[in-house]
Design goal:
Elements (H helix, E strand, L loop, with lengths): L3 E6 L1 H8 L4 H12 L2 E9 L6 H19 L4 E3 L14 E8 L10 H8 L1 E5 L20 H9 L6 E3 L5 H8 L5 E6 L13 H9 L4 E3 L3 H4 L8 H14 L5 E3 L5 H7 L5 E3 L2 E2 L13 H10 L4 H19 L3
Parallel strand pairs: 1-2, 2-4, 3-4, 4-5, 5-6, 6-7, 7-8, 8-9
Antiparallel strand pairs: 10-11
Length: 324
């Protein structure tokens, strides 16, 4: 079985909503195991409209949900390079990340606190402009505070994630760190969407040794949501491989259907034609990763390339950036 490392999930929102000590075991451990996900990056996501104090409280709530999940039998926290060896053999490694860190702009010391809590990946921006820089719906780049924070990340063992970054923020940030990833997005050559990366960005990730985690969600795959199929996900994987090389494509699920249904968000509209409940038919959660790998096999991918995409490439980057 091909083992998977997934660069992005918002499952902590669901776990925090549940509040039970066994929430991870009841809600997510089964789907992850059935999908052979041996390493799952779990994001702290805080709505940027929250006041500073409320945002920090929400972040700590999600960090607590993460810590509780790592105490589940068969799960553990990944904080150092050596922890990667424990992923697999019936055990699921969980790694903590931050998605959208504008709430750190005025309190840079909070980065040190987050590192102590286990954060090992951080995306400075979300969609809009925040105190660190421009998100993907803007033309802005990194602010002074954003440059200072990004430049510090390698020294504290935190991998830079440029998901949701504007194109200018993307290139500003790559000037400051030796490597980076985009945890969940797709290819702009196939769908010109603000969340997606153009070919110059793909080549920049190649040049710094990073990866793009392909996001199997209708929002970013095709202008027509009906064409957001498993085959379309495979086409995005293939485009990265063609432009940047197989060594620079990974998986970033961002599977939202289960979370949306658990929290009563299923009918909320993301954009016209796409609700929070939207998913690729046959690839709606981590337990469906086998369908994508089977599709790629049928399209001629060999086992070594599948293993690299499914988990090997992300592990390689983490081996380079995590503390020893």
């Amino acid at each position: 079985m091909t083992l998977v490392a997934d660069a992005h999930s918002d499952l902590l929102i669901e776990l925090a909503h549940d509040g039970g000590l066994d929430a991870f075991a009841r809600r997510w451990q089964g789907p992850l195991c059935r999908g052979a996900v041996t390493l799952q990056v779990c994001a702290i996501f805080v709505e940027e409209t929250l006041a500073a104090g409320a945002g920090l409280r929400e972040a700590l709530c999600l960090a607590h949900a993460f810590e509780t999940a790592t105490r589940t039998d068969g799960a553990f926290g990944v904080e150092r390079v050596g922890d990667l060896a424990g992923c697999g053999g019936g055990r699921t490694g969980l790694m903590l990340s931050v998605e959208g860190a504008g709430w750190l702009a005025d309190d840079a010391w909070l980065l040190d606190v987050l590192v102590r809590l286990g954060v090992r990946m951080l995306a400075p921006t979300y969609n809009e402009l925040n105190g660190l820089g421009g998100g993907c719906l803007t033309a802005d780049g990194l602010s002074r505070a954003g440059r200072d924070l990004v430049a510090r990340l390698p020294s504290v063992g935190v991998l830079l994630d440029l998901a949701h970054a504007s194109r200018r923020t993307f290139f500003d940030a790559l000037d400051l760190v030796p490597t980076a990833i985009v945890s969940h997005a797709a290819c702009r050559a196939l769908y010109d969407h603000p969340r997606n990366l153009d070919d110059a960005q793909l080549r920049a990730l190649r040049d710094c040794g990073g990866v793009l985690g392909i996001m199997p969600h209708p929002l970013v795959l095709d202008p027509d949501p009906a064409q957001a199929t498993v085959s379309r996900v495979a086409e995005h994987c293939e485009h990265v491989a063609e432009v940047a090389g197989v060594a620079h494509v990974a998986l970033g699920g961002d599977f939202l259907r289960q979370i949306a249904r658990a929290l009563g968000w299923a009918d909320e509209v993301v954009v016209p034609g796409i609700t929070m409940d939207a998913a690729v038919d046959g690839l709606a959660g981590p337990d469906d990763y086998g369908a994508l790998l089977a599709c790629l096999r049928q399209r001629g991918w060999g086992e070594a390339d599948l293993a690299a995409l499914a988990g090997g490439n992300l592990r390689r980057v983490l081996t380079r950036t995590l503390p020893r």
